[in-house]
Amino acid sequence: MQQRQTLLEFPCDFPVKAMGKATSGFEARALEIVRRHATDFKDENMRIVASGKGNYLSATFVVHATSQEQLDALYRELTACEDMLMVL
After folding, report:
1. Using one digit for the tens of pLDDT, what is the confidence trace for 30-46?
2. Structural domains of the chain in order of their starting residue, each with its CATH number
3. Strand order across the 86-87 sheet
4. 3-state class of 56 per DSSP?
5. Looking at the whole model, is its pTM more than 0.85?
């Protein structure tokens, strides 16, 4: 099995950004997923910004990542969630 190369050095603080509709419960669902993959996540490492008309939210979570596998699993679960419109 070939191991994938990464430019990141673990552990590190890594920002994950997700966007969704403001009315869908997006913020709570995204936070629940982040906490499942980063059990030490602190609320002060989350920033929520509303779009100009308030229809959409952008959430940035700075997680303390311990491995590429952890980040991959977090991204997979976030992108699989129907409340997420985009994950960066």
Report:
1. 999 999 999 999 999 99
2. 12-87 (3.30.70.260)
3. 46-50, 56-65, 12-21, 86-87
4. strand
5. yes
Pick from 61, 3, 9: which is nearest to 37 by CA? 61
**Cα dist from 18 to 4, 9, 25, 60, 63, whole Å:** 24, 23, 13, 7, 13
Torsion of CA 22, 26, 27, 28, to 10 degrees: 130
Give pLDDT, residue 51.
97
Give the C-alpha separation, 54 to 52, whole Å.
Answer: 6
Q: Mean pLDDT, the chain, as a whole number?
A: 94
Which residue is it, tokens 């993959």? Answer: 37
Q: What's the 3-state SS for 19-51? A: EEECCCCHHHHHHHHHHHHCCCCCHHHEEEEEC
Look at 77 and 4; give whichever has higher pLDDT: 77
**Tokens of residue 65, six digits:** 């990542």
